[in-house]
Hints:
Layout: H1 2-17, H2 26-32, H3 40-52, E1 57-58, E2 64-65, E3 72-79, E4 85-89, E5 98-100, E6 113-124, E7 127-139, E8 144-152, E9 155-160, E10 169-171, E11 183-191, E12 199-209, H4 213-223, H5 232-243, E13 254-255, E14 262-265, E15 274-280, E16 286-293, H6 304-312, E17 316-318, E18 321-323, H7 328-334, E19 342-352, E20 358-369, E21 372-375, H8 376-383, H9 392-414, E22 425-429, E23 435-440, H10 445-467, E24 474-476, H11 482-493, H12 505-515, H13 521-531, E25 536-538, H14 562-575, H15 585-618, E26 625-634, E27 637-642, E28 648-652, E29 661-664, E30 669-672, E31 678-680, E32 684-693, E33 698-703
Parallel strand pairs: 10-12, 13-20, 14-21
Antiparallel strand pairs: 1-2, 3-4, 3-6, 4-5, 6-7, 8-9, 8-11, 9-10, 11-12, 15-16, 16-19, 17-18, 19-20, 22-23, 24-25, 26-27, 26-32, 27-28, 29-30, 30-31, 32-33
Amino acid sequence: xxxxxxxxxxxxxxxxxxxxxxxxxxxxxxxxxxxxxxxxxxxxxxxxxxxxxxxxxxxxxxxxxxxxxxxxxxxxxxxxxxxxxxxxxxxxxxxxxxxxxxxxxxxxxxxxxxxxxxxxxxxxxxxxxxxxxxxxxxxxxxxxxxxxxxxxxxxxxxxxxxxxxxxxxxxxxxxxxxxxxxxxxxxxxxxxxxxxxxxxxxxxxxxxxxxxxxxxxxxxxxxxxxxxxxxxxxxxxxxxxxxxxxxxxxxxxxxxxxxxxxxxxxxxxxxxxxxxxxxxxxxxxxxxxxxxxxxxxxxxxxxxxxxxxxxxxxxxxxxxxxxxxxxxxxxxxxxxxxxxxxxxxxxxxxxxxxxxxxxxxxxxxxxxxxxxxxxxxxxxxxxxxxxxxxxxxxxxxxxxxxxxxxxxxxxxxxxxxxxxxxxxxxxxxxxxxxxxxxxxxxxxxxxxxxxxxxxxxxxxxxxxxxxxxxxxxxxxxxxxxxxxxxxxxxxxxxxxxxxxxxxxxxxxxxxxxxxxxxxxxxxxxxxxxxxxxxxxxxxxxxxxxxxxxxxxxxxxxxxxxxxxxxxxxxxxxxxxxxxxxxxxxxxxxxxxxxxxxxxxxxxxxxxxxxxxxxxxxxxxxxxxxxxxxxxxxxxxxxxxxxxxxxxxxxxxxxxxxxxxxxxxxxxxxxxxxxxxxxxxxxxxxxxxxxxxxxxxxxxxxxxxxxxxxxxxxxxxxxxxxxxxxxxxxx
Length: 730
């Protein structure tokens, strides 16, 4: 219950902090947030607690607003490379983020907790404007940064990577670590920047030469505080588990080693944690078997391995490198469902009729032996009739997998499942490990087959544990709120599409279908994604909106996700007749917060390294042209996404052409005052690469062809002058 109150508190704050929030009464607020009748008491309690704490106020007309800004604001500082910044209040107010001019940042860095004085700057549009002056830095966010060592004007300094901290850090004795110019290094700040002096620090570690793959990998690991090597306690436990593994001596497990079972994974995968079998029962109904590596047999609760896995939260998949959640002797060894090897697994059997309706579900501890390890390309070749190199039983299985998957996919779409088409990019490397090109990631139908079967298995296990009335780690995705849908509706109108009021899943499905094949397709899919809250791990029972699933959890990847391992333990206890809760709801809530964070951290690290590697490649192609689509507009320029490389760049306003360009916030476009030319979301644009700043992660672009014609010089009318007639008639 306490966790549900926390969730409602967060949802209320997020909702009323939005710029387009229009004050409403508490009951209207509950409706706008989609609060169900059975949860209204928790919503009311959360609201009352917030009102008592002064986080919300009831204004004129009994409507809910944030409190007014006070003269002292405490918040988290976010710096801009141009010198100014913003303080994001820890306790939200009606003003929102507080602008801090360059001269008033007091040396604060991104992420610092600061105290600022709010200063009135006069009225605009009927509202008081404020700026701020930082008066105290209460807590530094970090004191270690990764950057490139440079020397200029006789002084050594480190230029930090990224946008969190952009000021150079001076360093003295670089010889202590044998550092050289253009080395990638880790620097610790000893004294922070002031108005007169730059930050001063000491080099802790040399990671390698800037621009080299190994150094860039090491810098991302350091920057995102990703885990490194396993300690001896973990590796020792993993080795002991591997040495003691005797699948032939297994007890209380169903022997399915004679079944035709295959794995389908990317070509470079080594941790195979899911396998598929398909058959028909005595009545001719489909029988899907989803067999998942039984990691819980080797990673016992509260052991050294378990503690480390919980801390890591998940494996991180960086371009060219995997940072595993478990030691490789497990993840790539006895836990991996390798072909021809007996392995322990947990099996979910789901029976369907010909319309894809679920008739029954059954679960078991099993020992299996994979018939074949297929790549997605292999499976796609089989479906396209290229079957020469595959066994007949494998061919038959893959074709049945496609038939059943299409039946399940159709049923799920009819139930409202949403599919966003946001293409990913695969990097192409040369022998030296440098990125030389990129191509769209494979999206052949076998990917959908595996996705459908994993979703079905996850849903089946969640339904079982929910019926047992035991708290467990769910994967939740809240419904979009009223303001989110309203903002989505405004955005898509800019590309000629629309949504009805109170749009539901079917309306969003229709929107995505209407955008298919249009220039604006990527932008529309991104708008829909941004209108949703992120999925997260939590024991709260609120379902998964995008999957149209009432009960959902993660069960199918315990080698690489700690959430799945927790679910496996509950399923195992059930299979052994135990009914008591293994982990309390409170513990699950805390763990859920942590593994949601580690999941996001891994995604951010992967995206950052991809960006670095692509920018390094593009820095050698200044002047080259690319196809892009406009994904955002701002008062300072246009954001565009390169279709091929999956990277975003910026065209500053002054690069758009010879005109005065104005940002239209309501219309989400930029318009030339003289020409009337409009740059809008979803617009295709051919651009050229102007400059690349790898440390700052910046790609500057310009239109490859003029958007508007240069106006011809105005002809100045020359007035004819006539001699003045003298007065007096001279």
